């Protein structure tokens, strides 16, 4: 059984300012750097090592990974955050209400040059499956983004279970999955700050 540790990046300036980030970028805050370093210390304390590490091509994800470990890693566009089109960089107050059936923003951003939840989910699932299918990938760390990780998790865990098992998906939260036969099984959410 293989293991995937899928992590949300550290806190950024846009997180602090409550701005929509998506495909745009903003730097990690001092708190974001500290939290990522704490994750690295946690992995060292429990003697957890990774065969391979990956990050989205966005700076906030790769900077998070570089504050966790100095091991080499690969940047992949498939791990990028949900693209929110013309809403990028705007106030989070402009976000729509969640679609009551899909429990996400659904197709809302598509007419504005963004992606749908299904597009992001398919992209994330394809990318992570390709990673985990590599023969020498037994335990993998991948740093991605809140929206992208959430819709990926929603593919493999019912929304009601997400509410129970992942009540706080904060920056630097880690989602642990087991992987076998092209399927992911959610194991647990790890919030190092709460350990």
TrEMBL record:
It comes from Weissella sagaensis. It comes from the Bacteria. Gene3D superfamilies: Phosphoglycerate mutase-like. This is Histidine phosphatase family protein. Transmembrane segments: none annotated. PANTHER family: BROAD-SPECIFICITY PHOSPHATASE YOR283W-RELATED (PTHR48100), HISTIDINE PHOSPHATASE FAMILY PROTEIN (PTHR48100:SF5).
């Amino acid at each position: 059984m293989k293991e995937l540790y899928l992590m949300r990046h550290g806190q950024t300036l846009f997180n602090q300012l409550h701005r929509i980030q998506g495909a745009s970028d903003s730097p990690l805050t001092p708190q974001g750097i500290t939290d990522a370093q704490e994750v690295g210390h946690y992995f060292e304390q429990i003697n957890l090592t990774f065969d391979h590490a990956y990050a989205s091509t966005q700076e906030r994800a790769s900077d998070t990974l570089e504050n966790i470990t100095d091991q080499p890693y690969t940047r992949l566009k498939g791990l990028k955050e949900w693209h929110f089109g013309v809403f990028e960089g705007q106030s989070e107050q402009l976000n729509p209400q969640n679609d009551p059936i899909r429990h996400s923003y659904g197709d809302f951003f598509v007419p504005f040059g963004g992606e749908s939840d299904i597009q992001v989910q398919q992209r994330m699932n394809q990318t992570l499956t390709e990673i985990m299918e590599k023969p020498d990938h037994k335990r993998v760390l991948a740093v991605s983004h809140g929206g992208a990780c959430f819709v990926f998790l929603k593919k493999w865990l019912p929304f009601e279970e997400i509410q129970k098992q992942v009540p706080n998906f904060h920056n630097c939260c880690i989602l642990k999955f087991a992987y076998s036969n092209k399927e992911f099984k959610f194991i647990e959410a790890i919030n190092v700050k709460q350990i």
